[in-house]
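Duplicate of #3305? Posting structure anyway:
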């Protein structure tokens, strides 16, 4: 377990999580910000890339479990690029059947707080496509403000994005239970 909130558990994903992950990534509405649904191969590569992040960085996107329902989404911290800068980003993506219940904000708050406490980062970012109002609202609820505008080229499309960020000094308290510190990242 990485973190627990009043309703959710964040944990490392395993190869056994491919089926619920495919359900999320294959939904064209959920994946609108990614220019459409992923096929089975793209979903498998997505999971492989995230599992590799655990080895390379000691963290990544984690499974979000709702007790009694299993994995309902993924949320965590990844290294990302915004223009020429490497940043620590909180990412979140949930099964559409669980939208509009506050789960994304709850999980992202736990991930943000984990990054501040366990990684000691000064700033946590969220890269949000400029048409994704739901993700913008999550970022705002995390105390983030827009700091940059940039374009991401993905799946053959130029996608305008907003870079939301919050500094550790503005961190709000949350009800998270943290696991022991992860294995330090390997030298790059």
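Output from current build:
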């Amino acid at each position: 377990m990485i973190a627990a909130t009043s309703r959710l558990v964040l944990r490392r994903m395993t190869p056994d999580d491919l089926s619920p992950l495919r359900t999320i990534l294959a939904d064209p509405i959920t994946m609108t910000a990614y220019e459409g649904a992923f096929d089975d191969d793209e979903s498998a590569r997505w999971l492989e890339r995230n599992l590799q992040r655990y080895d390379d960085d000691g963290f990544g996107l984690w499974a979000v479990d709702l007790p009694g329902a299993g994995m309902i989404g993924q949320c965590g911290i990844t290294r990302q690029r915004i223009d020429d800068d490497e940043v620590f980003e909180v990412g979140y993506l949930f099964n559409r059947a669980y939208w509009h219940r506050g789960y994304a904000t709850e999980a992202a708050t736990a991930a943000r707080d984990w990054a501040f406490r366990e990684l000691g980062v000064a700033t946590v970012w969220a890269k949000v496509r400029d048409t994704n109002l739901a993700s913008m609202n999550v970022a705002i609820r995390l105390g983030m403000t827009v700091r940059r505008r940039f374009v991401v080229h993905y799946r053959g499309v130029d996608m305008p994005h907003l870079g939301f960020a919050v500094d550790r000094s503005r961190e709000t308290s949350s009800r998270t239970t943290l696991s022991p510190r992860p294995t330090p990242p390997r030298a790059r």
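Confirmed duplicate; merging threads. Confidence is low (pLDDT under 50) at residues 171-188. DSSP finds four helices and nine strands in the chain.
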